[in-house]
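Pinned message: reference record for Right handed beta helix region
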Amino acid sequence: MKITLLLIALLCAAPALAAPGTKRILGVGDGGTGAEAASAARSNLGAASRGANSDITSINGLTMPLSTGQGGTASATGDLSAMTATVNVLRGYGALPAPVCNGAADDRTALRAIITAAAGNARVLIPASVTCRADLLTLPSNSHLTVDGTLKAPDGIVQTVIQIGSGASNVVIDGSGVIDGNRNNTTGANGAAGGISSGPTASNVQIRGVTIQGARMWPLNLVGVSGCSVTDVTMRDSTNSAEFAAGSNNCWASRLKISNIDNDGSFVFYKGVWNSGITDSVIEGGFVSGIGVYNDNDTQTLSHDLVIANNILRGNGRVGLEVSVGTRTDQTRNHYNIKIKDNVLVGNGTQNLSLGDIALSAIERSDISGNSSFSYGGASTSPAIKIALGANALTIENNKIFNPGPGGASGVCFQFAPGTTAERWIIRNNTCIDNQETRTVAYGFLGKIPTKSQVHDNRVINTIGGFGPLSEGSSLAFGWKGQISNSDQIAALNYHTSTKRTTALQMRGDTDSVSIGGIEGSPKTITLSTEDGDNAGKIVVNGALHHGGAAWIDPINHTEDNTAVVSAGRDNATLINTTLIPAFTVLIPPLTGANGQIFRLSSDGGVTSMTVKDSDGNSISGSPTTLAAGVGRTFLSDGSAWHVQ
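Predicted structure (tokens):
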């Protein structure tokens, strides 16, 4: 009896249940939703569209982070990677209405409200196949915006599309969609308008995957950001550069695709950026440069500790890569500690302005290595690597340059124009090649070299004008007064900082001759090793070799008895006589060698009757009997006789 009464009481206390087939809707007070449709139910309950416990909008005073099952991120650090709740903007957010996103309506108010409310709570998604029209979408801290559709600025007064808030941290912008600045349908001052911009002092920013196009100014303008990564982003058809700017640090860009930037560099480190870089990116078709490190003047904060590596720079108008400042008042103020390495530059300089494929004028304490330049410039003087003005303390090595100056005959691999403060350039192990059927490279090197510099072990192959003319940049810097040859060559250069130590070895392909030359006719002598055995210095001529001693030439004054004794160890004697000698006898020292050796005689004024004997006075078969004035005679010995050459 007690059990029966208990069941009756429970049934009376329970809300009425609708019988099968009835249309009754339970009210909120009865434990129902008070609505037939799910959207109305969410509105009645004030619930979010998705996520566990999604009707909870805020909880204060928690000492432990909410788990993902509770609708939280399970993170006490604000790490957005743990955020799993997603707000599809087409469904609204809580009581906030959804934007229309039909490509025509103004969606600014709805999107701004959803982004602000979702920060720290959920990822905001603009889904694929829709176009939302909005700008000035400001992302506060702990925001995650995914653009899989199109986010396009409205027509009218230009504004930036997405703005990372001043001081905001932990911001993610990603997706496979498009951020469109709509530059052809906007008006007004450019200001900071762009695709994605930041306020100062933002931190921990991630941008990945999206395409940014049609920006009235900067497709990407990150100012004063500490810690950011930009990866797999495409930027195209915009007015100004993508840039890290004005105090940004620890910012890294990789795998970017940038094309058709109308003004300034395509990607720029601007006005004081440090500990940052760009790698593994393809940049093409820019009006000015592919990559630039720029200031407006040298009083602004300088950039330093940058990495520019493994990029492809192609078809940019003025230069491929540039490090400079605008107005210069002090050539000692330069960007510094920059690594420019392993980049490939192809067909830049389409405007034919002779600025340089790699143009360095405000840089110091930096390395430029492993880069390859192909076909820079046009018919005017087109330097592949141009170093000028305050450039200082540079190491430029292992770069390869091919065919600068297409369409003309004025290409240059290296052009030097140092300022008064420049010094300490190391230029080594670089290769300059002209491998075209019709050559375009006038010189391997052109210009001045500054003090305390080294230029050595560079190769210049098949250029029109050889290494080219280099001049003295200071009392300790020496180059060529003029070019060494004007025909095919394979050449190697050694340069030292002490007086008259610039030398070049050059082979002429048309005559199979070798030239050795340097400033003012140096070297005047060549000293070979005096070691014994295989380490001994030697010159081989047609199979006969010459062993070098401490000196080669024995200058012999004309004596009354018309007899000269060549000093031991000498194998090159010059008779010093201003008038013709009627008769002369020369005693030469022993010259030994199983493979034959060389001895050479010359006379300033000439000898009409000459006798050559060994040091014991024995005649030597095959010796010359005359010497023309200023003409040397060379003998090859096979061990028993001399053969005049």
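Pinned by admin. Summary line: The mean pLDDT is 80.
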